[in-house]
Specification:
single chain; 197 residues; three-stranded antiparallel β-sheet
């Protein structure tokens, strides 16, 4: 295959050989330290333009065949002891910036997934617009459930993103406004990180 085809869509300074991609995947899985799906790994690496999709797919297939990664019953992948050893031995051959971008990207994806599991957003079409219902769940009763009318679907999506990006900020704001108790909730400062970028 043409070398340009293998590096298409890859940021300069990223990894381009199959060997480097194998090491990067092992390193990333070791740093995260929990099972991840194929989609989560590919999204994390490709959103940062760290690898080419075809090279990523080949590397994952090689890692599975060689026993570096193992699948569970829920289609999530974990490192085997061989994969752990590969990451520990060869991680320093990868550029530090590549390692940091890969880990940061996957952490954002997993954080957003967790927030989507712990918090609910329902968008319901109405005759004259939409109702967005935001819910922060807990083990027992919900901590917060609030609905708001919005005229367009785009505005609903913006609210959904802001809410899932920082549900604690929304909770603190609603709590402070309704109770007048700003001392309990502390400073109302939004998260500087955007999980949707």
């Amino acid at each position: 295959m043409d070398h340009q085809a293998l590096t298409q869509g890859v940021r300069p300074g990223s990894v381009t050989t199959g060997h480097e991609i194998i090491i990067l995947i092992c390193y990333l899985m070791r740093e995260i330290g929990r099972p991840v799906t194929y989609e989560q790994l590919s999204q994390a690496l490709m959103s940062q333009q760290l690898v080419n999709y075809f090279e990523f797919a080949d590397a994952m297939s090689s890692l599975e065949k060689s026993g570096h990664i193992l699948a569970d019953g829920e289609h999530r992948w974990s490192l085997s002891p061989l994969g752990e050893q590969t990451a520990a031995t060869f991680q320093s051959t990868l550029p530090l910036a590549v390692r940091e971008r890969a880990v940061g990207s996957l952490e954002k994806i997993l954080t957003l997934l967790k927030r989507q599991q712990e918090n609910q957003v329902f968008i319901e079409k109405r005759e004259d617009g939409y109702t967005v219902t935001l819910t922060i769940t807990d083990i027992g009763s919900d901590l917060l459930s609030v609905s708001i009318f919005m005229p367009t679907r785009e505005e609903c999506e913006a609210i959904r993103r802001r809410f899932l990006n920082d549900p604690t900020y929304v909770y603190k704001g609603v709590f402070a406004l309704l109770t007048g108790d700003t001392a309990t909730v502390g400073d109302l400062l939004p998260s500087k990180e955007d999980l949707f970028e």
